[in-house]
Amino acid sequence: MAATALAIAAASAQVAVRTFDDDSIGAPPQGFAFAVARQQTPGRWLVRAEGSNHYLTHLADPAGAGGFALAVLETPHPAQMRASVRLKLTGGERVGGLVWRYQDAENFYVAALDLRAQELALYRVVRGNRIRLDEEDELELDDSAWHSLRVVQDDDDIRVSLGGIGVMRVRDRTFTEGGRAGVWSGGGATAWFDDFRVEPEEDRRRNR
User: Fold this and answer.
1) Domain extents in the chain
2) What CA–CA distance (Å, rounded) separates 34 from 61?
3) Which of 60, 99, 148, 181 could bond 92 through an S-S bridge, CB–CB 3.0 to 4.6 Å?
4) 118, 115, 53, 121: which is closest to 90 by C-alpha?
5) Residue 180 — pLDDT band, cuts 50, 70, 90?
6) Is pLDDT above 60 for 3?
7) Class of domain 20-203
8) How many CA atoms within 13 Å lie on the side-chain side of 189?
9) pTM of the full predicted structure?
């Protein structure tokens, strides 16, 4: 029982939940590192509020169009994990999503929701090169609404859900260890993020 309690405590310590309600409006949130990929200009991230609700926003920079602006938790996640976020893509390129198993600004997995193309895609980024692993198009999403995005990583099994519905499942062994997780916005997009959560996922290999 003591071992079980310790395991539960360790798992709880790895859970990260960010609602941004305790962060100062008009400033970057604490506990995140910021980076860019495939663009020269730095991303601009601030906490804003809509009524009493705080959220993280990336401000569009036309010079960063086609690039990635990343806000990544400083705390690493385990190899088996799940991450989720609510996002609203309000202007510019209207593209953003989740990153995980992040090693550095040139090596990570990314789930990309593109409302202009009405597409959800899964990529690996290796040495700065983006390789598409899967996609789902013709989504017919409301481009003025909040959308819930979730990824689950179990060994080499990657599952992506949108609005609570499983959309794609891929196996890939490019990044086999843990890393860090965060959110990303197209450099030329204005994107809002809220209710960001990262937690361990039970390793199903133990039950095989």
Assistant:
1) 20-203
2) 15
3) 60
4) 115
5) very high
6) no
7) mainly beta
8) 28
9) 0.90
